[in-house]
Amino acid sequence: MKWAKWVMMGVCMLVLTGLGVREWRASLVVNQPRGRFNMVMIKPESGLSFVSFDQTEKSLIMLQFPNKVSINARDSGVYDISSLYKLGSYQGNGGEFAARKVQGFMRVPIPGYLVVRGGGGQAKNILRKGLLRIIFGGGETNLSRFDVAVLWYRAINYRYREIGEEELIRAAVIEKEQDKMIYHPERLQDYVGTRFFDWRIGEEGITAAIINASGVDGLGSDMADFLTNLGMDVVMVRSGRSEDEQPTSLWQVGNEKKGTELSYIFQNLLGFGLPKIEVVPGEYRAEVLVIVGEDTKELF
User: pLDDT tens digit string along 96-112?
Assistant: First the structure.
């Protein structure tokens, strides 16, 4: 019967439409309101790479970290960058843990991760194959298939540049020390700031003031570096009084519109709660007030 055939076709179309809408809503790429999308590509057997897609310049940059680079996290101590995925896997979130820690020590937003296994060759080809494998149902990632399809297209068509160990050594970002490699945080910030600064946020001229109420020295500066690399203008970093220390970080803006505009940064990337909607006191000379709590240690 023809009507039954048409009914089945209609049902299939509805199902496919529903799946498409679900993938769209889950997208980290399309729903990100900024011009640059960053992620980490993790090879559990041999380390990881930082991957940055710039929509404005139509460029793809891959920064491959040497396996023996040691980094210092405030909540986890010193460890080799190649062990991040394994450390996180003990708690069942290897990819998420690795992305969060690389975001913390690079001070740039990294919402996505992709785990690739086996195979060799050029990094860009490994990336393309890993993305393609996800599209067909294999691999490990926090990206939707819609995200992966968009990034695969960009990986094919964007101008490509690879940053390796030699360039990082020349720029004094990393330094060989016996059988290890150490990185210099201040030089890394200079290097990152000139290459991965998000000019679209910078053009908006968003100002921020930071109060370190964590009781941990340096966390306010860590947050300032992160927001500066995002393109925000940090006009003040101040330590809070010891009696005002708090476990949870907070952020405050003058109106709901600004809160919605900045929710991606503070809620999605940093894991903060909803903003306090109240005009920031004039003494801070800023549109956004960030109160850094003790929980921020997990980010850096």
Answer: 999 988 888 888 889 99
